[in-house]
Design a protein that fits this description.
The complex is a heterodimer. Chain A is mainly β. Chain A has strands at residues 4-7, 10-13, 19-25, 31-37, 44-50, 53-56, 64-67, 73-78, 87-94, 107-108, 112-116. The chains are: A mainly beta, B mainly beta.
Chain lengths: 117, 113
């Protein structure tokens, strides 16, 4: 089945130690998103890639970066994790049609739960 | 800025009873609205969506939602809940394009025997 895959499912990192979270998709969708979801809160959009174009949300801290080397993969890099960055990180994808219109529907991966010690 | 409000943080329903989860949005143009469900420690699963057309939309797992423009609402309903429906439910909004979803704060559904 086509899907969105996130690795690892659980990640523990030390305060200040860089960490990378991975997302891959077999849906061949051209838009990929990263959301942060803190405990008992709603998901919050960090940034997204529309094809190779990177779009950062205005309030996303500089500590968060992203890379998309190809259509299938997208990475979330946290350069210096703080205790406040402990959260579930969700990757999602969506697709534009050949005419450039969006489906608006987003498909989510299972998430990576990040713990900062 | 657009916002999504889910006024009920927790709802408890008896198994077999009907369910309605409330969602209100704040935006002037035609919204694109979604309901997602999240089980503990899991990602989000799409239940249903509204883009245009028929204001009563059917989703998976027996859920439906009705879009009411006059009330800026998109409430989720199910005629008879099952214990497996216990989860967190998020209403979400998109204004179009690839700008991502704006989520409500979620409603935690508890099913009692």
């Amino acid at each position: 089945d086509a899907m969105v895959i996130q690795n690892p499912r659980y990640q523990v990192t030390q305060f200040g130690k860089p960490v990378t979270l991975s997302c891959s998709q077999t849906l061949n969708h051209n838009v990929m998103y990263w959301y942060q979801q803190k405990s008992s809160q709603a998901p919050k959009l960090l940034f997204h890639y529309y094809d190779k174009d990177f779009n950062n949300e205005a309030d996303t801290p500089d500590n968060f970066q992203s890379r998309r080397p190809n259509t299938s993969f997208c990475f979330l890099d946290i350069r210096s994790p703080g205790l406040g960055d402990a959260a579930m990180y969700l990757c999602a994808t969506s697709s534009t049609s050949l005419s450039g219109s969006y489906s608006y529907e987003q498909y989510f991966g299972p998430g990576t739960r990040l713990t900062v010690t | 800025a657009q916002s999504v409000t889910q006024p009920d943080i927790h709802i408890t329903v008896s198994e077999g009873a009907s369910l309605e989860l409330r969602c209100n949005y704040s935006y002037g143009a035609t919204p694109y609205l979604f309901w997602y469900v999240q089980s503990p420690g899991q990602g989000l699963q799409l239940l249903l969506k509204y883009f245009s057309g028929d204001t009563l939309v059917q989703g998976i797992k027996g859920f439906e939602a009705e879009f009411k423009r006059s009330q800026s609402s998109f409430n989720l309903r199910k005629p008879s809940v099952h214990w497996s429906d216990a989860a967190e439910y998020f209403c979400a909004y998109s204004g179009g394009g690839a700008d991502g979803l704006t989520f409500g704060k979620g409603t935690h559904l508890i099913i009692q025997p």
